[in-house]
Amino acid sequence: MMQRFPTQAAVENPRYGQLIIGPPGSGKTTYCAEALKFYRELGRQVGVVNLDPANENMSYEPVLSVMELITVEDCMEHLKLGPNGALMHCSEYLAEHLEDWLLPALRKLSATHNYFLFDCPGQIELYTHHNAMARVFERLERERYSLVTVNLIDSHYCSEPAKFIATLLMALNTMLRMSLPHVNVLSKADLLKKHETKLHFNVDYYTDVLDLKYLLDKLDDDPAMRKYHKLNAAICSMVEDYALVSFQLLDVFSTDSMLRLRNHIDKANGYVYKAGEEQTVNSLLACAVGAETEAARMEHDVQPYME
């Protein structure tokens, strides 16, 4: 996890945001809907901003939606683009209309909201190769939003070594390109019990991204993957050299799981350093430095998702 430390003077009326990204089907919209209810119950002035121009089935009421500006369907119809090309065009169009659409709307909303969940598009190339969304995030940061990227990845990828290594590479690439505080999340962790028999190692091996040599050995057991040994070894070595990627497990329908993730996110975007839900010095310090025994961490972060 990459996190933000308070290095500058406090901002008057600070604003915070979670940039919810991840591959299609990873649970971004579901997370936004549940997180909206969760943070409201904590007393935060929270709202969801939909930045996905193809998000037609929102299970929440956004305070602002990019679909008021442009939609993938319109781009496909009028510009004769395919779904991926239309999504990229929409992202570029959004980046070009930050000053005359997105930022003025957010400034108005800041009168009643100081915490935003940005539901972002699911096309992963927008974060690993394209720069439109990075420009949007950079402009929000210059607007003095304290941001954290929350990268949701379906936990079932742990059950296949090749997919998990690809996930590690994607997560590292995104972290480096976005250059923001970052929390990687294995979503739908409540379903891990169904895949437990397919896991080659304990769950903490995947969340802590332990010695990848063992995962490389499992890849070599597959004749189709064995010929890519040098490439896979290079990817694993690079991930280990950077030592940046780790994961938090999440069940969005579990209050305890959401609370655990909230602690990581609040540390990452600096919310923990303002007067929030933690009222005492001891609880503030415990959240800020992650003071917790390994046994307690395993009890709360891993065991609830295993038999």
UniProtKB/TrEMBL annotation:
The keyword Transport does not apply. It holds the Pfam family ATP_bind_1. Signal peptide: none annotated. GO terms for cellular component: cytoplasm. GO terms for molecular function: GTP binding; GTPase activity. Keywords: GTP-binding, Hydrolase, Nucleotide-binding. Heterodimers with GPN1 or GPN3. Binds to RNA polymerase II (RNAPII). Small GTPase required for proper localization of RNA polymerase II and III (RNAPII and RNAPIII). May act at an RNAP assembly step prior to nuclear import. This is GPN-loop GTPase 2.
